[in-house]
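Record type: monomer structure entry
Structure origin: computed from sequence
Chain ID: A
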Amino acid sequence: MTTEIQSRIIGNLGHITLNRPKALNALTFAMCEEVTRLLLAWENDPSIGAVLIDGAGERAFCAGGDVILLHDSGKAGDMRAEDFWRMEYALNELIHRYAKPYITLIDGFVMGGGVGLSVHGRLRVAGDNTLFAMPETGIGYFPDVGGTYFLPRLGMEIGQWLGLTGARLSAGQACDVGVANAYVPSVDHGALIQSLGMAKLDGSDAAVANVMMKFIKKPPQGEAIPQAVKAFGAKTVPAILRALDADGSEWAVKQAVNIRKKSPLAMCVTFEALRRGAKMNFRQVMTQELDLSLGFLKTQDFYEGIRAQLIDKDRNPKWSHESVDSVTEIQVQRVFRKTANPPQNFLR
């Protein structure tokens, strides 16, 4: 067990709190392991009628995973990165198919690993401070934790926009696009948990809904996503950039500038991963994502992106390509290369 996870049973509600507030509740291997243990135990416990997960502190639900560990593991050539991904992806799959109502209070930052803990569950509850993003292309990586499954299912234009640019969504926008499917003001989250704990939760969605309906409010109006987002429906990343340049609106120019700062290889791999993921089931996507994660460990951009953003923090990465136009199909396919040990259930 780890102190980085707090758990309690309130009536028929199993309540998990991510407890690394100073690190914005970023996930570690031990945290993934403990959440998995709790979910499996509670799924088989007839006295538990629903599970709720939230984050300690006021700043974040969960702002990602232990990226420095992944960087160091790849450099060392050991198994820590693969073991972490296998554990994390197994947890994502468990959440996706979980038999009981799974509720996440995604207030504050919800990024990377925090997205994987939330978007695959049935009830994603935004608060006033919700800030959603998948910023992985900025570190020479791709939106994993099931990102290549759920992003294209938001609509390919929206999914590619979020996956390629790492754009941040407010609470209202998260509700508008479907990342969140309910909004409860942050001040009411404690009362919501208390009410769920007092209710007779029997494992049905209806029992949870009877409580939730008393707290759910109309979400704050999010800034409208411009029509220029249609550029992200183009058939390649270079074509997306050409469409944004041709649009010329302030929003389109901002997106194009953003794209040109990110890893060209990661952009092209992400685009292809979302395109493929739209046609796959969840398990197929997660198997592909493990291949991609291990593939990125063999790229220059993964280490350079993490160095520039999180280690040296000079924000000046030297990517392996000058632009997306110079990334070849062979280079993209190399990252997709299948691992020699495909997962049966991700965990060894």
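Annotation 1: The first strand starts at residue 5 and ends at 10.
Annotation 2: The beta strands are 5-10, 13-18, 50-55, 60-62, 102-106, 109-111, 123-126, 131-133, 182-183.
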